[in-house]
Putative RpiR family transcriptional regulator
Amino acid sequence: MSFASLVSERLDGLTPAEARVAMFMADHPHSVGHLSAARLAEAADASDATVIRTVRKLGFDGLAVLRETLAAELSMSGRLEASLGAGHQVGTMRLIRERSDAVNALPGRIDEESLLKAVDIASKAKRVCVVGFGPGGFLAGYAAHQFRRAGVPSTAMTATGQGFADELSRLTEGDAVVAMAYDRTREVDVLLDQAVTFAIPVIQLTEDSLTADPRASVVLGAGRGEPTQSPTHATTIIVLESLVLAVAARHTKRADRATRLLADLRGRLAASPVAPDSDNTTDGDT
């Protein structure tokens, strides 16, 4: 049984305050792993004691055990199993609807003020550095490519471990970072520290405001679809593309120059090869 189903089953046996805590945890499972009991209580408008009492009424010995359960449920294999749990007869359409629902929910997840602030940061940057790891690395490369097509100097930062040090060392004044930071990793932590040290603004794409890092300049809660289902990157792609287009709209002349240059280069590359000048050929027998 999923955690959300467990909460739904036991909701009638909870007090109003306990029900608020339980529903909050069911709606924001990613936050349970990051927030302390005090922060969970604050978010659910309850007390620390209510959080602990709710956890026990749901059948867990403590918050740590609940976190372990949710971690397994939110793991890649757990989310994939949940997505396919209804069996093969479900077909593709249900999966498409799930992803469509995630996309349709975006306007309610990201407020316009935050988005405009992100556009302002990226528009003023001398270079936009897009950070992503794992599958997010491919999205980072795509976004950097789109920024460059709009005339914005951009690079993708996708290395992990010690290799990430080389990319971090190239961050400099005037840069802005767009970081796909849905999970807390050592790379993200060091990146944010480095950004603070050099006063480099960071636009963080994450699940929601509760998983935001206070070191980020602005947070866009793109999310990755239903937390207990197989994650989708559709929402992230839409936010990245919207950011690129909005920045291009701020600098239409720059974007137009980049577009015309690209068209010119494509035309030259598509032209037929020039044949060698016959007058310059020599006959070895003469």
Q: What stands out?
A: The chain has two domains: 3-74, 108-268. Residues 17 and 46 are 6 Å apart (CA to CA).
